[in-house]
């Protein structure tokens, strides 16, 4: 067998030693009580660095309820990954809440070793291409090692992905700052609505209740049966105030755009089909006794595959694009026949 990462080596050693132990023992006796948090946190970071230096990538999912800190915890990891892969993670560029845009950028961006954070995956993706997005992301996860692009998923529950790391919420009472001045303030409740500002001279990052750190349980697959097993608690401190404030602004804008369907994914596909028809127009029409007409659907489909390849669109998408292309061709033929 080839060289394994530090985390893989540790997990293999543990699984061989405790192969008769139950999941409950792994969680309550080993992961929660015996494995030091500093040890497993450093092991994860060493694993990230090892992957950067051994032509591998990182695929990770973080699960937690609202306000559990899953996004800030994951963002911390993404920033570390960007440093290890020598392709810095830039919040404004690399955080996504729109699956269509994420898929488009992963596939079209030629830059290797880049890190993407997909924040708050929607439970339901509607519209043409939603299933295609799920499939293409899945395909990417299975082949992404070649370009060493990293993807960090963050959502209320773990979605089906070929992830290497899974982090699940372990704390339901986050470790937070205490500030007695805030507690005795008459505007305490009102001030808490000001997420990244305050109503007095105390900065938001010194306000009572501001998070100190976020802790999540790490899971990786057991080699013998591929079952996700708890390995230990990973802890990262709260991000720098400037970074946390920037993240909040970006996330708010991303979610607003997604809710308003402000993405150009579908428009881009329609533009591609229009260009396709213009490029292959002469090959996609035929002479008939009534004038010119589009060729049959099978020939249009064949030319679509020739142009875009067999893996860019799903079969059901191709069927719709064939209909759209044929309609565009019919309009062109009708216009020409009218002139003749």
Word description of this protein:
The chain starts with 5 loop residues before the first helix and ends with a helix. The relative contact order is 0.13. Strand 6 and strand 7 form a beta hairpin. Helices cover 48% and strands 15% of the residues. The protein has two domains: 6-175 and 211-259, Rossmann fold (3-Layer(aba) Sandwich); 265-339. By secondary structure, it is of the alpha/beta class. It has a seven-stranded mixed β-sheet with strand order 2-3-4-1-5-6-7, sandwiched between helices. The protein has a two-stranded antiparallel sheet with strand order 8-9.
Strand order of the largest sheet: 2-3-4-1-5-6-7
Strand content: 5-15%
Based on the coordinates given, report the CATH architecture of the largest domain.
Answer: 3-Layer(aba) Sandwich
Q: Topology as H/E string?
A: HHHEHHEHEHEEHHEEHHEEHH
Q: What is the helix content? A: 40-55%
Terminal CA distance: 71 Å
> What is the top-level CATH class of the largest domain?
Alpha Beta
- Count structural domains: 2
Structural class label: alpha/beta
- If helices are DSSP runs of H or I spanning 4 or more residues, what is the number of helices? 13
Characterize the overall form. globular
* Oligomer kind: single chain
CATH topology-level fold name of the largest domain: Rossmann fold
Mean pLDDT: 87
Largest sheet: 7 strands, mixed
The low-pLDDT segments are none
Please give the radius of gyration in angstroms. 26 Å
Question: Would you count the extended β strands for me?
Answer: 9
């Amino acid at each position: 067998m080839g060289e394994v990462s530090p985390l893989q080596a540790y997990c293999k050693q543990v699984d061989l030693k405790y192969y008769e132990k139950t999941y409950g023992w792994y969680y309550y006796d080993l992961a929660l009580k015996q494995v030091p948090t500093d040890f497993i946190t450093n092991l994860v970071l060493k694993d990230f660095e090892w992957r950067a230096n051994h032509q591998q990538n990182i695929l990770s999912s973080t699960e937690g309820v609202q306000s559990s800190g899953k996004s800030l915890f994951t963002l911390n990891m993404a920033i570390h990954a960007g440093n290890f892969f020598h392709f810095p993670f830039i919040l404004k560029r690399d955080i996504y809440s729109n699956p269509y845009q994420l898929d488009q950028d992963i596939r079209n961006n030629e830059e290797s070793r880049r890190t993407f954070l997909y924040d708050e995956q929607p439970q339901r993706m509607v519209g043409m291409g939603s299933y295609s997005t799920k499939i293409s992301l899945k395909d990417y996860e299975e082949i992404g090692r070649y370009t060493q692009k990293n993807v960090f998923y963050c959502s209320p529950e773990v979605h089906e992905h070929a992830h290497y790391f899974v982090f699940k919420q372990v704390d339901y009472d986050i470790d937070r700052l205490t500030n007695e001045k805030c507690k005795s303030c008459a505007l305490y409740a009102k001030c808490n609505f000001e997420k990244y500002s305050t109503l007095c001279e105390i900065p938001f990052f010194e306000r009572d209740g501001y998070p100190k750190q976020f802790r999540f349980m790490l899971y990786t697959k057991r080699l013998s049966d591929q079952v996700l097993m708890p390995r230990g608690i990973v802890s990262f401190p709260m991000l720098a105030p400037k970074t946390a404030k920037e993240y909040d602004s970006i996330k708010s804008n991303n979610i607003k755009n997604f809710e308003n369907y402000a993405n150009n994914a579908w428009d881009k596909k329609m533009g591609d089909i229009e260009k396709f028809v213009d490029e292959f127009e002469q090959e996609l029409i035929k002479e008939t006794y009534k004038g010119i007409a589009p060729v049959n659907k099978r020939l249009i489909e064949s030319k679509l595959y020739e142009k875009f390849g067999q893996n860019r669109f799903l079969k059901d998408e191709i069927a719709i694009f064939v209909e759209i292309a044929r309609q565009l061709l019919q309009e062109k033929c009708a216009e020409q026949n009218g002139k003749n």
